Amino acid sequence: MPTAEAPYRRIANEIAAKIKSGELKPGDKLPSTRELAESYAVHMNTASRALSLLHDRELITGQPGRGTYVAEHPGR
């Protein structure tokens, strides 16, 4: 029986696909953790974990006090 993809991975993969397709461009601001949690109907911890995964993949960068943005050279 196939296992469903973890919600944080699904969110991260959807955002990553938008970055790779050019829908989200370098320097674009991403929604806040709270906004992501609300739009995907998940707990804030799940949304935070999705952002952490994208950061680990070097697709996004955080700027304390300002927000999270698409990295200038995503995936490098």
List the defining traits of the structure above:
two-stranded antiparallel sheet, 3 helices, 76 residues, Arc Repressor Mutant, subunit A, DNA-binding transcription factor activity, globular, mainly alpha, 2 strands
What characterizes the major β-sheet? 2 strands, antiparallel
CATH arch. level architecture: Orthogonal Bundle
Query: Whole-Å distance between the termini?
Result: 36 Å
The unreliable regions are: none
CATH topology tier name: Arc Repressor Mutant, subunit A
* Share in helix: 40-55%
Concise description?
It holds the Pfam family GntR. Keywords: DNA-binding, Transcription, Transcription regulation. It contains three helices and two strands, in the order αααββ.
Describe the structure.
- The protein is mainly α and 76 residues long.
- The protein is built from 3 helices and 2 strands; from the N terminus they run αααββ.
- A two-stranded antiparallel ribbon has the order 1-2.
- β1 and β2 form a beta hairpin.
- α1 packs across α3 and α2 packs across α3.
- The radius of gyration is 12 Å and the shape is globular.
- The termini are far apart.
- Keywords: DNA-binding, Transcription, Transcription regulation.
Please render the helix and strand layout as text.
Layout: H1 7-21, H2 33-40, H3 44-56, E1 60-63, E2 67-70
Antiparallel strand pairs: 1-2
